[in-house]
């Protein structure tokens, strides 16, 4: 089944340009696209992915569409779905393979499943597409669908892959063996890093890094009063005063020692605004490095206390850890989420009581996307350090977002994160995210060196403004689509 997503009207380019931080970026976008937008007259650019909520792609597309429309490029957003849930188990395994993880095996049954579902989706999608339209397909799930529609209608098509590994290993070769018959049919392909491009696509690849919308609910500036209000309405803080607005439709829930989830202020207030707080917020995915992060925090609270100054000892003793992710059931294309969360719940219950009291696993409601975005914004804006301890990371907007807010970041050396952060300049980097000792030491530096932390945060904010905002991304994508219209490669 194919669902066409209606996107509400957002801010105009003139609205963005009123911000002194964004005026030049808007002007550069208009200048870069002025000569190519006439090529899209009479065409629709179809943006296709596998979910309308959860994950960086679903968050990027609405604002990207709005800007394209204002520039004169008609766009529509289609989300693929299927009742054959085994497909998403396969594509999750494929996701892991392209990150170099998992058993390097693709069976004939896997290939047949991918082909069959792609053809079922083709039958639904093809009648919606016009003969002059152009496809921009995101990630492996709909890659087969897009290739089949392109071949059938003879229209231009670009595939954008947001994941990959900077190494050629058996797992990645297995993953690409499934995708190669489909993605090699596209006129051009887009990756987030040059290191991700497989050799068979090197003749048609381009580089576009993901980006964020500075006016979105997740990334707009929040005043201290607004942060306090959002935390209170989300049930993340106990307010001593009446809130100006009613509580959100659903509250954040917190894992309890008995394995249940209850309101986040149970059994006590998290004290997010009143002590050093470390946070990682991501999907519940093993590749995000949750388990070694929790173990590293345990070491940070124990072994690091042996030889530190009294001031650092107080900081470490007061520090809390927030592990934050979406309700697993809300992310339809990630069937491992519940399993991963269960593993983390078990690890949490085995922590020493004196450490467990400073760790909170939080499940964010996903029904209202605006409320969810405001909660994430308030958390990223109020904690001391945002960590992204990914074993693999295609890019990692969960690092870009706090960088934009001026919140210090601590990341792994995963390839996507290396695209953003210069170690010691824009943030600190953990060389081996699976080594809890390295994680613990990095947490110690992040908490106990506030001046250095603040300097890097300012540099990170400048870097996002210069390289990772939506205006740059739209300009680069339109240029690649224009090249495809002028000189298609795969027809």
Task: Explain the overall architecture.
By secondary structure, this protein is of the alpha/beta class. It is built from 18 helices and 15 strands. The chain folds into two domains: 2-213 and 469-486, Glycogen Phosphorylase B (Rossmann fold); 224-467, Rossmann fold, CATH 3.40.50. The chain has helices spanning 13-17, 23-33, 56-70, 86-98, 108-125, 143-153, 170-183, 224-233, 290-302, 310-318, 337-349, 353-356, 369-382, 397-405, 415-418, 436-448, 450-467, 470-486; strands spanning 2-5, 44-49, 74-80, 134-138, 157-161, 188-191, 205-207, 253-255, 261-263, 277-281, 320-326, 359-364, 385-388, 409-412, 428-430. The strands form two sheets. The chain has an eight-stranded mixed β-sheet, with helices on both faces. It has a seven-stranded mixed β-sheet with strand order 1-3-2-4-5-6-7, sandwiched between helices. Strand 8 and strand 9 (261-263) form a beta hairpin. Helix 4 (86-98) packs across helix 7, helix 8 (224-233) packs across helix 13 and helix 14 packs across helix 17. The protein is globular.
